[in-house]
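Field log, afternoon session.

UNIT: design team B
ACTIVITY: writing a sequence onto a fixed backbone
BACKBONE:
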């Protein structure tokens, strides 16, 4: 059984490094007094979020991943994309939208090519 080619868009791994530094910085406080121990949760959650969140694209659709859940969007359900300076949002057939985490406007052509989609603006 062959796997479909997939492209992944993820946040910069420097965020993971920042989370590790945050954990190391909070550890002395958490070890000194028990009531400071919840401080360790913040950098742990930052590392997990940076590691997991993002977008996976293949010829069947787009999977948007968050910290604890995922949403699969078939290409037939996506009617278009909107962009602002730093982010891309998928417009869906049911008139809702989903922000594509870690995808920038510069990544949009690569996302469409990975999904086998056309760069044309019209669908007539």
């Amino acid at each position: 059984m062959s796997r479909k080619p997939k492209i992944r868009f993820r946040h910069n791994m420097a965020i993971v490094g920042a989370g590790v530094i945050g954990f190391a910085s909070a550890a002395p406080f958490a070890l000194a007094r028990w009531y400071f121990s919840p401080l360790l949760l913040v950098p742990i959650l930052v590392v997990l979020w940076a590691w997991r969140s993002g977008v996976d694209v293949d010829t069947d659709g787009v999977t948007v991943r968050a910290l604890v859940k995922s949403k699969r969007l078939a290409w037939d359900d996506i009617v278009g994309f909107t962009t602002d300076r730093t982010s891309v949002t998928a417009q869906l057939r049911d008139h809702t939208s989903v922000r594509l985490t870690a995808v920038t406007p510069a990544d949009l052509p690569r996302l469409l090519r990975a999904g086998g989609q056309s760069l044309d603006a019209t669908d007539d």
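LOG NOTE: The first strand starts at residue 7 and ends at 10.
NEXT ACTIVITY: expression trials, pending approval
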